[in-house]
């Protein structure tokens, strides 16, 4: 099963690994510092982080040592006790427009269904009519319930109603969309804070996860955005989208490291099945194999 998962990673991040494989000679047991540096730069990893990864190591190291160092860069890996999730488990999805929020919500709902869990969506981006429509289309396609309101109405009311509906109908998972208009940041800041407060009012402890959706092709811009949102409401974890077709998979190292947050999933396409649970071990194995 592990081999299969690893293979899936390699396939999904084909572009990234393709570039890297031209750099590191296959099957070579010892790798020189120069080779490693080139490998990581090719994967779009920042120099600062390469230095951090290689700190204190000799000029030539084994694959095993390198693997260990790279996995350690994801030390913020999630330690969620999946056997003991609250019901409903409430996730708030945060990020700028275009990052892939709507699509990712659909993918998360799909995973939920595949796991045999019931799920309800909240169309909390009430700023854009298109966002409500788009999420409704996904809900219909996936055959999951959705709570929505008219454009311009109170987003926190949608959040409250979604959680209340989940409690009343005994639903396992709640996924709530939020607005992502960064150009009116003050309003957005207030809106997100209000949503968080109202979630707590609807259910003590909610939202249980505030997940930031980042466009993986955006590099440093994405990291800056995440920092801004983290200051607004505090982010618990990251989902990086659009890693298919980009050679920038190494950006995952920078994202996890600079934000000091776990990466929960990566998006590798536009379809409902194109979301992979992120595993540092599998990712690094694919990189080095
Ligand atoms: P939102 O504005 O944040 O809700 O973003 P959307 O979910 O509407 O996504 C914006 C665009 O990116 C859409 O065309 C999606 O199909 C596309 N998209 C989202 N995730 C991925 C992904 O993982 N891979 C690719 N190739 N496209 C994606």
From TrEMBL:
Report which superkingdom the organism of origin falls in: Bacteria
Tell me where in this chain the SRP54-type proteins GTP-binding domain is found.
Answer: 262-275
**Where is this chain's protein located in or outside the cell?**
Cell membrane; Cytoplasm
Give the CC-aspect GO terms: cytoplasm; plasma membrane
Q: Please name the GO terms of the biological process aspect recorded for this protein, alphabetically.
A: SRP-dependent cotranslational protein targeting to membrane
| Residues that bind GTP | 95-102, 177-181, 241-244
Q: Which GO terms describe its molecular function?
A: GTP binding; GTPase activity; signal recognition particle binding
A Pfam family this protein belongs to? SRP54
* EC number(s) given by UniProt: 3.6.5.4
**Can the keyword Cell membrane be found in this entry's annotation?**
yes
Protein keywords = Cell membrane, Cytoplasm, GTP-binding, Hydrolase, Membrane, Nucleotide-binding, Receptor
Show the catalytic activity. Answer: GTP + H2O = GDP + phosphate + H(+)
Alphabetical list of InterPro entries matching this protein: AAA+_ATPase (IPR003593), P-loop_NTPase (IPR027417), SR_rcpt_FtsY (IPR004390), SRP54_GTPase_dom (IPR000897), SRP54_N_sf (IPR042101)
Respond yes or no to whether keyword RNA-binding is given for this record.
no
Subunit composition and interactions: Part of the signal recognition particle protein translocation system, which is composed of SRP and FtsY.
Protein purpose: Involved in targeting and insertion of nascent membrane proteins into the cytoplasmic membrane. Acts as a receptor for the complex formed by the signal recognition particle (SRP) and the ribosome-nascent chain (RNC).
Q: Which PANTHER family match?
A: SIGNAL RECOGNITION PARTICLE RECEPTOR SUBUNIT ALPHA (PTHR43134:SF1)
- Protein family according to the UniProt entry: Belongs to the GTP-binding SRP family. FtsY subfamily.
Name the UniProt record assigns to this protein? Signal recognition particle receptor FtsY
- What is the native source organism of this protein? Arcobacter caeni
